Amino acid sequence: MSAEFVFATAQYESGDWDSAPLLPANIIDTIARYTEIPVAPTGVIVPLSDARLFRYPLVYLTGHLPVRFSDAERTNVRAFVDRGGLLFVDDHNHDIDGTFHKTATEEIARTVAPLTELPNDHPLYSAFFKFDGPPTTSHELNGWGDNLVHKHLLAVQRRGRISVLYSNKDYSSEWNYHPDNKRFLSVDNTRFAVNLVVYALTA
Amino acid sequence: MRSPRSRLEIALRICAFGVIGWMFGQSLRPNAGVRVEHARAAQVSAQLPAWTRQSSNVALHVDLDAAPDAWIVDWLAALRHSGHAMTWSGSPPALALAADAVAGPFGSVHVAVAGPDGAMIHLRDDAGPLDSVRVSTMGATVTTPGVSGDLVAIAGAQRARIHSPDSVQTRAVVVIGDAGWEGKFVAAALEERGWPVIAHFAVAPSVAVSQGVLLPLDTSRVAAVIAVDTAVQAVASSLEAYVRSGGGLVIAGPAGSSPALATLRAGTSSARFTPTALPGDTIALGATGFYPVASLVPGSIPLERRGPKGDIAVAARRVGAGRVIQIGYDDSWRWRMTGGASAEAAHRVWWSRVVASVAYAPGPAPRADEGTAPVANLVARLGPARAARSVPFASRTVDQKILMTIALLLLLGEWASRRLRGLR
User: Fold this and answer.
1) What value does the mean pLDDT take over residues B250-277?
2) pLDDT of A129-156, one tens digit each?
3) Considering its fold, how many domains does chain A have in total?
4) What secondary structure does DSSP assign to A13-77, as a single string?
5) Are B103 and B160 in the same domain?
6) How many separate domains does chain B show?
7) In chain A, helix, strand, coil percent, each to 5?
8) A66, B12, B122, B229: which could form a disulfide with A103 (CB 3.0–4.6 Å)?
9) E strand spans, B145-262
């Protein structure tokens, strides 16, 4: 077991948990590019119902389809956040009327606690790069989903720390590309992922 | 025919020699004639006024199954100093009690009791029972969340009492390291236990995430520094002075190999020991490995050993006025996250105790009064236990002085009378 950061993607029994297969490698590249945080070169996929979930205190969960945790998943997720883990959930539909959003938020409320808006001056937005709030994605206004620019992320906080971070921004689409293609961007759109990882590792 | 004055002189001389002879005879007599008054422990307090009115020719003896209250011992000691032969017998259990405020946010009190091996000691305060411990190898320790009023230890009929220590002011704990799970969860655990935490995590060259103001390191605001890894180099210039002035330092895992801590560490940090762990194993502290502390510097003491070769996992030392504890563990967060049902709470408590063990916490010196070790106080004031007759009767010395004075006055009167009428 090494002390390096391992990017973990949650696998759950319902839905399409693997809808952003290129995202982990891209985020790992971003972490290595901007920080000295030792990071594992490849991510892992961890079933929410498996005890291995607790080895990865930051877990990313996404999908398009309805989310309904099994009892084992629910028990594990509850214990995971109780112990200090951070679950980052991103709505791949970026649609507040979509099935993922409705079911995922309901499931989070049932398993952990109801989500509330995260203030845009939260330390998450200044953990590494400075943001005035959640960075807008090109996919929010692409004609799919609700065509809204979501001004806030949602979160469940415990003891002053984020336990569950929920996004309607569709970072899963925004960051789901091969890392080499960053060179075509004038501004790296994955920088917010650095904030997310640094916040998880330091707050 | 002798004159009346001559007869008086002869009488004075006879009386003087009579007194001297009586004194000589008294000195040859055994002590059997000394009157000894006895009292049992329960009767002593009621007996004291009567004993105080007694002639000092009466010896006093007390049978004790427990050391009496301090005021009774004081009274008995006063009687002894007033000329009474004072003895006591019995074998009250030797009990001693000490209490120190634990540095930390909860106002806990660390209680140490000494007593006969195997004795059951009950602890209580003014509010009621606190705990009970069985003494092993002459002592036992308990950490209790708080004490109301006086703390009392009870072993059979013996009681020891101490005033509860004043709580200490809680200062901040600095957690310094690279951004990672260990530092994050150490800081979280301490915050959850109520410690004010100043966190400083290096993220990139010249970039660090800080919570609170790191410098200056000063005992007026920082109780302890936790070096999670070699990133402690960032405060190397002021760390040694801070520790020598009384600050606490926790060196965790790989931080033991940091050059910045070369003069402060308890020993060198060896190559990481990694035991074989099966996927289904329950993770506990150190179950995934640790950095053994080797080559202890003089004055360091090993506190915990583990592994097949008994490697040192925890060691401690003093540096100047400060305390340093070196912990080989580098991934206690795994214990918290993947351990058993109570691992999260145990992780919190463990880290809080580690910090409290070195934290700078000035406070009033513990008051050790006569109630904290009643049997020791009894022996100090009245001497060791012994039978009543084995003691020399101290008051006899006073009587002999009086008698000697009388004899001298008689002889002086006889001599003066003779000289005044012209005889030699």
Assistant:
1) 92
2) 999 999 999 999 888 889 899 999 999 9
3) 1
4) SSS-TTS-TTHHHHHHHHHHHH----B-SS-EEEETTSGGGGG-SEEEEEESS-----HHHHHHH
5) yes
6) 3
7) 35, 20, 50
8) A66
9) 150-155, 158-163, 172-178, 197-204, 207-211, 222-227, 248-252
B203·A55 Cβ contact <8 A: no
Domain region containing B179: 172-358
Task: Provide, as residue numbers in chain B, all residues whose Cβ is less than 8 Å from the Cβ of A85.
Answer: 337
Report the pLDDT value the prediction gives residue B287, as an integer from 0 to 100. 85
Q: Report the residue from A36, A57, A198 with minimal CB separation from B181.
A: A57
Q: What is the pLDDT of residues B200-217, one digit of tens each?
A: 999 998 899 999 888 889
Domain shared by B284 and B354, yes or no: yes
What was the pLDDT predicted at B102?
Answer: 84
Q: Do A202 and B201 touch (CB under 8 A)?
A: yes
Whole-complex ipTM? 0.95
Residue of A nearest to B277 (CA): A1
- pLDDT digits 0-9 by tens, B308-352: 889 999 999 999 999 999 999 999 999 999 998 899 999 999 999
My answer on whether B250 and B287 are in the same domain is yes
- CATH number of the domain enclosing A102: 3.40.50.12140
Residue A3 lies in a domain: no
Search chain B and give the residue with CA nearest A5. B180
| Same-domain check for residues B137 and B272 | no
B303 lies in the same domain as B225? yes
Question: What does the block give as tokens for B265?
Answer: 């560490």
Chain B residues with beta carbon closer than 8 angstroms to that of A158: none
Nearest to B209 among A1, A5, A127 (CB): A127
A161 touches chain B (CB under 8 A): yes
Q: Quick check: B140 pLDDT over 80?
A: yes
Domain ranges, residue A99: 8-202
Q: Are residues B199 and B312 in the same domain?
A: yes
Distance of alpha carbon B230 from alpha carbon B330, whole angstroms: 12
What's the whole-model pTM score? 0.78
Q: Are residues B193 and B330 in the same domain?
A: yes
| pLDDT for position B94 | 86
| Residue B267 main-chain phi, psi, to 5 deg | -170, 180
Question: Quick one: pLDDT at residue A1?
Answer: 43
Closest CB from B179, B182, B211 relative to A198: B179
- Contacts with A36 from chain B: Cβ below 8 Å: 178, 202-205
For chains A and B, CB pairs below 8 A equal 81
Place of tokens 């990071």: A39
Q: B334 vs chain A: nearest CA distance in angstroms?
A: 7
Asked if residue B309 and residue B229 are part of one domain, the reply reads yes
> Is residue A2, in this structure, part of any structural domain at all?
no
